[in-house]
Amino acid sequence: xxxxxxxxxxxxxxxxxxxxxxxxxxxxxxxxxxxxxxxxxxxxxxxxxxxxxxxxxxxxxxxxxxxxxxxxxxxxxxxxxxxxxxxxxxxxxxxxxxxxxxxxxxxxxxxxxxxxxxxxxxxxxxxxxxxxxxxxxxxxxxxxxxxxxxxxxxxxxxxxxxxxxxxxxxxxxxxxxxxxxxxxxxxxxxxxxxxxxxxxxxxxxxxxxxxxx
Length: 213
Prior knowledge:
By secondary structure, the chain is of the alpha/beta class. The chain has seven helices and ten strands. It has a single domain, classed as TIM Barrel (Alpha-Beta Barrel), CATH 3.20.20.70. The chain has an eight-stranded parallel β-barrel, surrounded by four helices. A two-stranded antiparallel ribbon has the order 9-10. Helix 1 packs parallel to helix 7 and helix 6 packs parallel to helix 7. The mean pLDDT is 94.
């Protein structure tokens, strides 16, 4: 089975086409204003028109309220919610119940963290997957940094690998972690929020190589 792949931080319609052409499984839109890859609800609604069937649309939120997420969903047909802040398992569960959306939680991996306990707490609350990213004291994703992939756990929930991935290292990352999916943003950009078609193609080729091992 090929490792799934999501290209996150899309801001332009032409980049959606590049992602679709590459065979990636999901597109991520960032609803977090401090991020250089953030989009408004109006921008996201327009971008969503270019996403075909069988490609999932994921919305990334950081400590957003239920009201903010509901306002987004009124105009943007998100398939999955990605909680990328300090949301507790109970908060994620409540928002998911109110919106009727599947969800997963992003965790920034610290060296002293009991990651399995944290993952299981969100799994018990109904997470459909968990995303493991590199820890950063101020940034919420998009750091360009990787954590120690040899510490990637093996659990009975789909695990998504993020942080520091690029066309050059994604095959190796998959070989080490056997992650269910990989999530890339900065590693396929020519500038923040501007994707590079060739880098996306090379990244997906790396995904194929890593999956085949």
